[in-house]
Amino acid sequence: MALLEIIKNPAKVLETKASAIVQFDNELAKLLDDMYETMLENDGVGIAAPQVDKSIQAAVVELGEERDLLELINPVIVEVSEDTGVDIEGCLSFPDLYGDVERPLYIKVQAQDRNGELYELEAYDFDARVIQHEVDHLHGILFDKKIIKTYTLKEIEEMYAEEDEEQ
């Protein structure tokens, strides 16, 4: 596996709808493995192919308390809840930007795995947020356009320090 360069905003590849994947081969498998390693190395919970300069519909995310790996190929969100929530998001392509983003609290997504097999998944709360963020990337939609309120890194660190003290 290899670490990939993360593309930083502004970059055309980040604002362009990615192409559907039709070939499920060793090249795709290697890209998914490299994306996962790159995401972990950069303390992310999700990364989309356009963030590593590949304009294809592939993303990897970690889900649940166990942080299980999920690969999303050609994902389509087919259902969302009316209930929404606001939470802080960051992005590997925007290293110094954090902000509140409102998103549905529940989604159902259909996607393919690295072998082209179709699957369907329901996700809630944080997991739903991560998937939606990455699917947005595949459509050229960047989270900075959805931010309601921004935070500095210092403000984020202070919020987490307060949470740690309360526990």
Keywords:
single chain, 167 residues, alpha+beta, Peptide Deformylase, 5-stranded antiparallel sheet, 3-stranded antiparallel sheet, 3 helices, globular
Beta-strand percentage? 35-45%
CATH architecture: Alpha-Beta Complex
Q: Any idea what the radius of gyration is?
A: 16 Å
User: Approximately how much helix is present in the residues?
Assistant: 25-40%
Sketch the topology as an H/E string, one letter per element: HEEEEEEEHEH
CATH top level? Answer: Alpha Beta
Number of extended strands: 8
Low-confidence spans:
none
Q: Return the average pLDDT rounded to an integer.
A: 96
Q: Can you count the helices? A: 3
Main sheet: which strands, in order across?
1-2-3-6-7
The H-level CATH homologous superfamily, spelled out, is: Peptide deformylase
End-to-end C-alpha gap = 38 Å
Largest beta-sheet characterization: 5 strands, antiparallel
Tell me, what's the shape? globular
CATH topology: Peptide Deformylase
Descriptive overview:
The chain has 167 residues and is of the alpha+beta class. It has one domain (12-166): Peptide deformylase (Peptide Deformylase, Alpha-Beta Complex), CATH 3.90.45.10. The chain contains 3 helices and 8 strands, in the order H-E-E-E-E-E-E-E-H-E-H. The chain has helices at residues 26-41, 125-138, 153-166, and strands at 46-48, 58-63, 68-80, 84-91, 94-104, 106-112, 118-124, 147-151. The strands form 2 sheets. It has a 5-stranded antiparallel sheet with strand order 1-2-3-6-7, with helices on both faces. Strands 4-5-8 form a 3-stranded antiparallel sheet. A hairpin with a 4-residue loop joins strand 2 and strand 3. The longest helix has 16 residues, at 26-41. The chain is globular. 31% of the residues are buried. The model has no long low-confidence stretch (mean pLDDT 96).
